[in-house]
């Protein structure tokens, strides 16, 4: 089997190959492009993320624009970063893993729960046709809305509200990606998922850890895949503890 190659992005490569005597701003920009490419190569490809569309999406989204100014220098580190309001932007591997697990082809309507700074929605926008993202903390929602608009992510809509209720007015969803850990899978997600759709969500387990699951709908039943252990902030909302009625 041939090794997976990193997708080529000529515009980024041309940015790196600049003539000497650059301004400090140009130098910083080139450094961030190199860091982004290294992040994809070292944190994603080498750890088993092989979906070419996901790799290209992660390569195309400037993560440094989604962290506080004081954290730009560490935007591409293999770690979550604090974005304010006791929330975080997930580490790059976790974002890419969830996107790959959602199995998107580019035609889907996707619901994201937990907008945060908008980084996950930006990546999803490169993988799906339309993205709706729900954030319960209004200042984060408004900041993400402005940021995504400013950066040109036109197929993303940010909604302020309780994400545990889903977003019934735009359902059914081809995929639901949940970026916070639930006690149990909220019933609304199952009800709003299209046949064949996928829910990717971390769920608390009795040991105190969190397990990532993928629920795939087949009529009235769901195939459940255990995707491994992860760590997330808790999912908070009115329906975060409804029984998981399988």
Rg from Cα: 18 Å
Can you summarize the main beta sheet?
Answer: 7 strands, mixed
Number of domains: 1
Beta-sheet strand percentage? 15-25%
The oligomeric state of the chains shown is: single chain
Please state the second-level CATH architecture.
3-Layer(aba) Sandwich
Query: Which residue ranges are poorly predicted, with pLDDT under 50 across at least 5 consecutive positions?
Result: 10-19, 242-246
What is the CATH C-level name?
A: Alpha Beta
Morphology: globular
Helix content: 25-40%
Describe this structure in words.
By secondary structure, the chain is of the alpha/beta class. It has one domain (23-230): Vaccinia Virus protein VP39 (Rossmann fold). The chain is 30% helix and 24% strand. The chain has helices at residues 10-16, 24-44, 52-60, 92-102, 119-125, 138-150, 187-192; strands at 81-84, 87-89, 109-113, 130-135, 156-160, 173-178, 193-204, 210-218, 221-230. The strands form 2 sheets. The protein has a 7-stranded mixed β-sheet. Helix 7 (187-192) links the parallel strand 6 (173-178) and strand 7 (193-204). Helix 1 (10-16) crosses helix 2 and helix 2 (24-44) packs across helix 4 (92-102).
């Amino acid at each position: 089997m041939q090794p997976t190659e990193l997708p080529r992005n000529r515009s980024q490569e041309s940015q790196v190959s600049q003539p000497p005597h650059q301004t400090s701003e140009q130098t910083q920009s080139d450094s961030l492009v190199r860091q982004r490419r290294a992040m994809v190569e070292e944190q994603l490809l080498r750890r088993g993320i092989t979906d070419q569309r996901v790799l290209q999406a992660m390569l195309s989204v400037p993560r440094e624009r989604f962290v506080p100014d004081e954290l730009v220098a560490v935007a591409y580190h293999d770690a979550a970063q604090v974005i304010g309001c006791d929330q975080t932007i997930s580490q790059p591997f976790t974002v890419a893993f969830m996107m790959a697990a959602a199995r998107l082809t580019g035609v889907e309507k996707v619901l994201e729960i937990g907008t945060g700074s908008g980084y996950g929605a930006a990546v999803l926008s490169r993988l799906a046709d339309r993205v709706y993202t729900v954030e319960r903390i209004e200042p984060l929602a408004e900041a993400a809305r402005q940021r995504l608009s400013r950066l040109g992510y036109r197929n993303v809509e940010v909604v302020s509200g309780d994400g545990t209720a889903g977003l019934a007015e735009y359902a059914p969803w081809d995929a639901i990606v949940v970026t916070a850990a639930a006690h149990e899978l909220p019933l609304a997600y199952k009800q709003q998922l299209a046949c064949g759709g996928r829910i990717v969500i971390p769920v608390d387990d009795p040991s105190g850890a969190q397990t990532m699951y993928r629920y795939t709908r087949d009529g009235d039943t769901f195939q459940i895949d255990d995707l491994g252990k992860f760590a997330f902030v808790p999912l908070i909302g009115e329906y975060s503890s409804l029984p998981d009625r399988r």
